[in-house]
Amino acid sequence: AQKVTQAQTEISVVEKEDVTLDCVYETRDTTYYLFWYKQPPSGELVFLIRRNSFDEQNEISGRYSWNFQKSTSSFNFTITASQVVDSAVYFCALSDANTGNQFYFGTGTSLTVIP
Amino acid sequence: EAGVAQSPRYKIIEKRQSVAFWCNPISGHATLYWYQQILGQGPKLLIQFQNNGVVDDSQLPKDRFSAERLKGVDSTLKIQPAKLEDSAVYLCASSLDRIGELFFGEGSRLTVL
């Protein structure tokens, strides 16, 4: 069965610190997609990144970077030099080819960046 | 490009009453989803449409929830009768196809008293 675990419920950091949000997933499928979404206080889920299971290359986008490791079934998200605007709930999600794009979301990590 | 539109943003009803939520996806997006997000949890899929056909409604409580997407564009989610545990944010999302990323609306927050 598909499952996404975000063990960190809440994280607080001081502005400019780096922070890593953990995501561990379970699936029996060989073809799947992993996502990160940001949910600010306004409530709308904002897409951040998608990776497919065949591409383990790490990705960097500005202050954001993602570390995908199939060996440990992890897809961790790091924010470098955090800012107050990064305060939000972050969700990791899994979608596999067999379920026609049904997304399995983790329970989310609430990040608070303290000025 | 306009995003996913949802209404109403907020709704307060008493238990056993009915409520309906509306969603208009991004133009051209064939796949539409309704998710339920209870406070402190991740979104849970209720129903997925591909054009006007249902792809997955296995987690939809069909005794009280119904959804339709008659013309393959906008969609309505109805709850009748509502229970206290239905208090949640109802998120609509759309995607271009069945493997693309989801684009979410701002959600409709339901409070059942």
Topology:
The complex is a heterodimer of chains A (115) and B (113).
Chain A (H helix, E strand, L loop, with lengths): L2 E3 L4 E5 L4 E3 L2 E3 L5 E8 L6 E7 L6 E3 L2 E6 L4 E6 L8 E9 L6 E3 L3 E6 L1
Parallel strand pairs in A: 2-12
Antiparallel strand pairs in A: 1-4, 3-9, 5-6, 5-10, 7-8, 8-9, 10-11, 10-12
Chain B lengths: L4 E3 L2 E4 L5 E6 L6 E7 L6 E7 L2 E4 L8 E4 L6 E5 L8 E8 L7 E2 L3 E5 L1
Parallel strand pairs in B: 2-11
Antiparallel strand pairs in B: 1-3, 3-8, 4-5, 4-9, 5-6, 7-8, 9-10, 9-11
Description:
The complex is a heterodimer of chains A (115) and B (113). With 115 residues, chain A is mainly β. Chain A is 0% helix and 54% strand. Chain A has no helices and twelve strands. In chain A, the strands form three sheets. In chain A, strands 2, 5, 6, 10, 11 and 12 form a six-stranded mixed sheet that branches. The termini of chain A are far apart. By secondary structure, chain B is mainly β. Helices cover 0% and strands 49% of the residues of chain B. Chain B is built from no helices and eleven strands. Chain B has strands at residues 5-7, 10-13, 19-24, 31-37, 44-50, 53-56, 65-68, 75-79, 88-95, 103-104, 108-112. In chain B, the strands form two sheets. In chain B, strands 2, 4, 5, 6, 9, 10 and 11 form a seven-stranded mixed sheet that branches. A four-stranded antiparallel sheet of chain B has the order 1-3-8-7, with no helix packed on it. In chain B, a hairpin with a 2-residue loop joins strand 5 and strand 6 (53-56). Chain B is globular. The model of chain B has no long low-confidence stretch (mean pLDDT 93). The interface between A and B is medium-sized, with 24 and 28 residues.
